[in-house]
Design brief:
Blueprint: E1 3-7, E2 10-12, E3 18-25, E4 34-39, E5 46-51, E6 58-60, E7 68-73, E8 78-83, E9 92-100, E10 103-106, E11 110-114
Parallel strand pairs: 2-11
Antiparallel strand pairs: 1-3, 3-8, 4-5, 4-9, 5-6, 7-8, 9-10, 9-11
């Protein structure tokens, strides 16, 4: 059974930083594609960053390039999203996702609010 549990969200001022974590079980970060997505109120869920196993190639949405960094810890089987220079438009629920065979698994999401 695959479980993805996000943590690290919260309220932060514009220009601030947060680090999101995604603890994975039933899916191995080092062998399966994983990523972060976000959904703002009234909008669709969009890709933020994804990482390819083994090669560790990364892909970022244009809106977060240079500000966000996706990474993983193989020993802890945990995915991270380091977010810097946060903007109000980054406010959303952030979801961790992992691909195992034909199925995409999702975490429950963690709220990030950027506001002064």
């Amino acid at each position: 059974q695959v479980q993805l549990v996000e943590s690290g969200g919260g309220l932060v001022q514009p220009g601030g930083s947060l680090r999101l974590s995604c603890a994975a079980s039933g899916i191995t970060f080092s062998f399966h594609p994983m990523g972060w997505y976000r959904q703002a109120p009234g909008k669709q869920r969009d890709m933020v960053a994804i990482i390819t196993p083994r090669s560790s190639d990364t892909t970022y949405a244009d809106s977060v390039k240079g500000r966000f960094t996706i990474s993983g810890d193989n020993l802890k089987n945990t995915l991270y999203l380091e977010m810097n220079s946060l903007k109000p438009e980054d406010t959303a629920v952030y979801y961790c996702a992992g691909v195992l065979g034909p199925t995409v698994y999702w975490g429950q999401g963690t709220q990030v609010t950027v506001s002064s």
